[in-house]
Design brief:
With 433 residues, the protein is mainly beta. Helix content is 4%, strand content 58%. The strands form four sheets. It has a 16-stranded antiparallel beta barrel. A three-stranded mixed sheet has the order 14-13-17.
């Protein structure tokens, strides 16, 4: 008798989903007011990239944050300097949307999406869950007659989204169109979180509130005396990360503001800290405008501790008169980025530019004994990036993108500023289906 493995079962399941996608069937339940339909889609995108020096990044440095500092050997030669190249297709993506029958007066749907970047660098090339959520939409519509025609006008709507979705401080309507996985980080936020999200829309005004938790993108802290990244610091606080957005969504103009409050227990178990919980506040302004064939996107961020969003900033343990007692202080980055792109035609040029400047970590005092720092970019004074690209559409489904990305980092050392730069050249071919 033949024994079926999980691989066989998964393959059969995938083939079954492909067979169902694009087909709709009627529910036998008489209470159903809509059919159930499946939409299977995604893309394949091999990506080649080359760097002029070693960089701080993730997933084989495919996600580039900034170049590493000068690392001289005994002869003064910088060991971090020198070209290297790689090619991967791990961001290949598969998504399935299920549109189902109405429930509680709402249109219902569910979405599942994954790629092959893995949850950590150690699991690269493994299937990773990107999105998995249930979506319920209530709409208030009115029929308006103008002459011989009738128009269906949306007055207001409510949406409840439960599951894993974009990080609430990452405004997915305002995301740079840079090459795979980088997506403007660390100037722009890039992450997903399990969450409960509520949206209210009224005549173009939108209010969004979200409570989110951590999974792949974790906080840093001290766990059993070790400096690690873990979800334990957020879980022990018992308080979800809270985000509120207020925005305007018009035909050609989209803009708004958001505030985020993240509460963690940064030390487990507590041994030296005077406070069990620490709350960090971050703020952002964002916008997008369409001007004919051009789309302009921009965002500014006061980032107090959004390490979990693949960004900069963090917090520090400040030890004062005794090493047995410490308090926690945020240190922040002011970040701004802009992305301009052509949104039609076969040839679509674009450019991304970002700048980030670090604030003071702590004011020096006579009784300051030591500092333990958590986060990303504490040894940077400022950081900037310029990233032009050119995309050519061979067909509606197939396109290629060539990109040049220069990132300049100004490090602070004991001897003063020490700037370094990295040039990344990349080429991507993508097929959508």
């Amino acid at each position: 008798m033949k024994i079926w493995s999980l691989k066989h079962i998964g393959l059969i399941g995938l083939i079954s989903l492909i067979g169902l996608s694009g087909n709709a069937y009627a529910q036998t339940d008489t209470t159903a007011s809509r059919k159930v339909s499946f939409d299977l889609h995604g893309f394949v995108n091999p990506h080649y990239y080359a760097d002029s020096r070693e960089v701080v990044g993730g997933r084989e440095d495919m996600m580039l944050f900034f170049p590493k500092p000068v690392n001289p050997d005994a002869n003064g030669i910088d060991l971090n300097d020198g070209w290297q190249a790689n090619m991967m297709a791990i961001t290949t993506r598969l998504g399935l949307r299920i549109n189902g029958p109405d429930a509680l007066g709402a249109k219902t749907s569910a979405y599942i999406e994954g790629d092959f970047t893995g949850a950590t660098n150690a699991t690269i090339n493994n299937l990773r869950l990107r999105h998995a959520y249930i979506d319920m939409l209530w709409e208030n519509r009115h029929q308006i007659s103008k002459g011989p025609r009738e128009y269906d006008v949306l007055i207001s709507s409510h949406r409840l989204l439960i599951g894993q979705y974009w990080y609430p401080m990452q405004i997915h309507e305002v995301m740079p169109l840079t090459n795979p996985l980088n997506m403007g980080a660390p100037f722009a936020l890039y992450a997903r979180q399990p969450q409960v999200r509520y949206e209210y829309h009224l005549h173009g005004i939108e209010a969004v509130a979200a409570a989110s938790w951590q999974l792949d993108n974790m906080s840093q802290g001290e766990l059993n005396g070790q400096h690690v990244s873990s979800t334990a610091f957020a879980r022990h606080s018992l308080i979800p990360e809270l985000t509120a957005q207020l925005r305007y969504n018009g035909d050609k103009l989209f803009f708004g503001a958001a505030v985020n409050a993240k509460t963690i227990q940064p030390q487990i178990p507590m041994t030296t800290l005077d406070e069990r919980l620490h709350t960090s506040l971050s703020y952002t302004l964002f916008g997008k405008i369409s001007l004919g064939p051009l789309t302009l996107k921009a965002q500014t961020l006061l980032n107090n501790s959004l390490y979990e969003g693949c960004s900069l900033g963090g917090y520090a343990f400040i030890y004062g008169s005794s090493m047995n007692h410490a308090f926690v202080r945020d240190w922040h980055f002011n970040t701004v980025w802009m992305d301009i792109s052509r949104n039609r035609g076969r040839l679509r040029p674009g450019i991304f530019a970002g700048f980030a400047k670090r604030g003071k970590i702590v004011e020096p005092t006579e009784d300051l004994l030591s500092i333990e720092i958590f986060g990303r970019g504490d040894n940077l004074s400022y950081l900037w990036r310029i990233q032009p690209r050119m995309t050519y559409y061979l067909s509606e489904a197939l396109f290629c993108t060539a990109e040049a990305e220069y990132t300049y980092a100004n490090y602070i050392t004991n001897s003063g500023p020490d700037p370094v730069g990295n040039l990344r050249l990349s080429l991507t071919l993508q097929y959508n289906f």
